[in-house]
Specification:
The protein is mainly alpha-helical. It has helices at about 5-10, 15-30, 45-50, 65-80, 85-90, 95-105, 130-140, 145-150, 170-175, 180-185, and strands spanning about 80-85, 110, 115-120, 125, 125-130, 155-160, 165. This is DNA-binding protein.
Length: about 190
């Protein structure tokens, strides 16, 4: 299947060459392609980890590269993100108001080569996701945009809409309590 077809089916309006550039950028920012997990630890740490059964062997050539899913997700996140100007158009405010909300943590975003980029998941036609400020206030500062996007768009067993697990975004759109999502968001990055 051609990349153009895949992008069109996913609703991504981007030139395939530009999309591949996003993928290459995302892959470059991740760990080295042939990283040896043992190199990240001291000898004592390696011994302890191996003693509890952790496999620190390098990835075998026949194994699927676990980075592929993360690279694809980051490329889609970057491609679908809004600029300050386009976010202002969606919300119906001046660009300075969007920048002010970013600075105050009332909108999620990151600085990229061309300026601020704002993940699309936080917007709805004519505004922002209900309860967004409450949720963003609970997200730990050290969580990258990809982690927050994955959380907001992945069904959570504790959030149910029509008797099925719902994403935090779906939950908020259905009128669910932002405080409930904020409680879950506050645990991002904390080992289970």
């Amino acid at each position: 299947m051609a990349l153009e077809t895949v992008l069109a089916k996913a609703g991504l309006r981007i030139d395939p060459v530009e999309f591949l550039g996003l993928v290459e950028d995302a892959a470059r920012r991740l760990s080295p392609a042939a990283a040896d997990p043992a190199d990240y630890f001291t000898a004592d740490q390696r011994d302890t980890l191996v003693d509890v059964g952790l496999d620190l062997a390098p990835r075998r050539p026949t194994e699927v590269d676990s980075r592929a899913r993360a690279v694809a997700a980051e490329a889609v996140l970057r491609d679908s993100a809004l600029t300050v100007s386009s976010a202002a158009g969606v919300v119906g405010v001046d660009t300075s108001r969007i920048r002010h909300r970013l600075a105050a943590g009332r909108l999620a975003g990151w600085k990229d080569r061309g300026g601020w980029r704002l993940p699309a998941w936080q917007f709805v036609p004519g505004g922002v996701l209900p309860g967004l400020e409450t949720v963003l206030a609970a997200v730990p500062d050290d969580q990258p945009p990809l982690v927050v996007a994955a959380f907001m768009t992945t069904p959570q067993p504790d959030l149910r809409v029509e008797d099925r697990p719902a994403t935090p975004r779906e939950w908020l759109l259905a009128g669910g309590s932002p405080a409930r999502v904020a409680t879950l968001a506050a645990t991002l990055g904390i080992p289970a």
